Amino acid sequence: MKDVKNYIEANKQRFLDELFELIRIPSISAEAEHKDDMVRCANKWKEYLLAAGADKAEVMPTTGNPVVYGEKIIGADLPTVLVYGHYDVMPVAPLELWNTQPFEPVVKDGHIWARGADDDKGQSFMHAKAFEFMVRTGQLPCNVKFMLEGEEEIGSGALYGFCEEHKEMLRADIILVSDTGMLAQDTPSITSGLRGLCYWDVEVTGADHDLHSGIYGGAVANPINILCKMIADLHDADGHITIPHFYDDVLVISDEERALMAQAPYDEERYKQSLSIKAVHGEKGFTTPERTGIRPCLDVCGIWGGHTGEGSKTVLPSKAYAKISTRLVANQDYQKVSRMFKEYFEAAAPDCVTVKVTPSHGGAAYVSPLDMPAYRAAEKAYTTTFGKRPIPTRSGGSIPIVAGFERILGIKSILMGFGLGSDAIHAPNENYPLFNFYKGIETIPYFYEYFCDILSGREA
Amino acid sequence: MKDVKNYIEANKQRFLDELFELIRIPSISAEAEHKDDMVRCANKWKEYLLAAGADKAEVMPTTGNPVVYGEKIIGADLPTVLVYGHYDVMPVAPLELWNTQPFEPVVKDGHIWARGADDDKGQSFMHAKAFEFMVRTGQLPCNVKFMLEGEEEIGSGALYGFCEEHKEMLRADIILVSDTGMLAQDTPSITSGLRGLCYWDVEVTGADHDLHSGIYGGAVANPINILCKMIADLHDADGHITIPHFYDDVLVISDEERALMAQAPYDEERYKQSLSIKAVHGEKGFTTPERTGIRPCLDVCGIWGGHTGEGSKTVLPSKAYAKISTRLVANQDYQKVSRMFKEYFEAAAPDCVTVKVTPSHGGAAYVSPLDMPAYRAAEKAYTTTFGKRPIPTRSGGSIPIVAGFERILGIKSILMGFGLGSDAIHAPNENYPLFNFYKGIETIPYFYEYFCDILSGREA
Does the pTM of the predicted model rise above 0.80? Predict the structure, then answer.
């Protein structure tokens, strides 16, 4: 890949300007008021794909937000890389914790600060620019397809059906995804596993109206207290999840593999410092990287009920709510877990309340074998640009659709993520270092080159 | 008390119109934006006291919202009744559950529907009109003082200091309060005991910023999960509160007194039906009336943290919050309990989070002896107007200042409450039956008459 560094240097301000236009569109998929922004953002992507060199690009309808599809086919006998990314972003609340406006990107201290700077506008846009470079310098070695969805942050609901419908159009040898992280700027890594996800909305109802906490307190169940007890009971004293049969299908990792994982650099003191915590907290018998990499977990993502405003209203509320999620590992079936939790949690309700569990979304875990061509090509690409062999890591995060791709399209994915743990994705002050942004654009073309070499048997 | 029924009949629409003017002022003490409404409401009361026959009335400054004070002194040797009430009201959220606008009172199905219809605008205004009747018909048998505060719903913070400062002005033989309920329209009752109150704001902090629940879930403490566990641990399996020494000072009620209490009409099936619950829930070994009357309790009045909006954001939040209150009984010291909980709950925090408890407000429990002159006078007044002897009951609610009056001013209170359990005070669709409103105005003058008779030895 000749001249990639020079090409980036010559175009770096334009790359940023273009990315910022994408970021400025508040494409929050979880909030209905942003429906029009989703379409605007999809159209902007279409424009960018055509400008970068795609033969065609379309905003295609789905049952939800549209998918942007684009392609450049240069030879029927050549390999095909399908780039997947998402143009939707997370909500921004609590707004008061942001140091800048979430949708007005700024560069400061060598980072881009904005919602979507990393996840996934910044990361997916690197692929558009790497593609542009290969096209304009005549170095594109294979066919390329792009698929950008607008519902990743709410579970990719419509994309499953879209894939079912467009299997032929989406045919490819590998799906290339940048929506994960790497260990550090001087420690490249490739995500070889992702956790699955299951998410539920929970509603606990006591009396049919809010009550005076003095007149009724002590005699009528308080749905907040009951919900707290029910949530507390989901873990035992050792941090194990207590839902019956929850661990039945969890893949047990061998001591050998655990020993290998333990070689990845990890400094617990620095980890704690980076979060300002005095102690980590999790399942007994597992290290921190194991707790997020190879073990499932259960978290309350949101809870509310009663008086949450100013002052001290004395109320015994009628209802309490929670949003509960689990992260799953291979080989847990997310649909089975979804049913299992609903049945267990509703049945666990004491007589004095009623509990309603509504499954929200979910997806399976994914594991990428270290000996597949795409993994080897990615490994070589990082080694070329970072001067260091990347470490395989298992991410605690989930990209449920990645397991879906394998199931529906029969195509494996390679997760070349360039984010850092400090990027604050899903949180206030999301950011993405310029170093990672440009290094990603530099590394991606080498992946194409090495991947085609390996598939054609030209590997050195 | 001659002609009280006729007087009410002749003036009933005016009484309502005047009350509605008070109700229309949204005097929510818990919300800072209503500061001006507090002053407007106090001035309206001043105007009403003067119109009803007070010699003087003033809006007096305090360290918080103003106090309205008014008086009519007709003889230095006569008894003095000090009427206490409050012109502030509770917040109205959740607004979507109201069938009418909370500050636009309407009469429907024989009830007044509005925030403050009962608590305490409706109930306190009965005293203004009973006073007006006695003055205008020349039947006022004693001196009358009025004191209306604007902070009852937030703990009467400023009134304690106001009482300390104005002991002489507030001298009286009894404090007359209508801020409680009665059993039913055909079952008059007098509240002979009130629970005390302690209220805290709790904040649990994990990491110093919101985290991605996938990347960190399972390894970093989730403050919502921890808060739920800590709240769950505040009760044992029998519904006892687990805070060490919490019950040390609780007055043990004799089996005889419990047997007497058990004679009050109470139908558990109707109770459950009125709340749409399948089962009551409380401390083992006590009946429902005992659980709210003679036993303390602990309730979470509000909880929030993480993503509480639309959609399914996967976040491991930095903070979780709760508003926790206890209702206390004789002889628990609310200041001691306040310190006890703060120390216990903060110390109970595991290493992985920090917990901050901020005491909000509190007050002691109060017991009114059944043989004091005011109780006997009230009993006789109800018997006259309802044709039935009222039952002494212990309310689960709290009017902390009532214990404060006894401590600071050395004056007992008599709690002639005319509200019903169905009035939905502190909740959406607060209401007050017209029957109770007018019956209160009718009953109050008899209390004055009988009280003066008893004090002067003229009792029949």
Answer: no
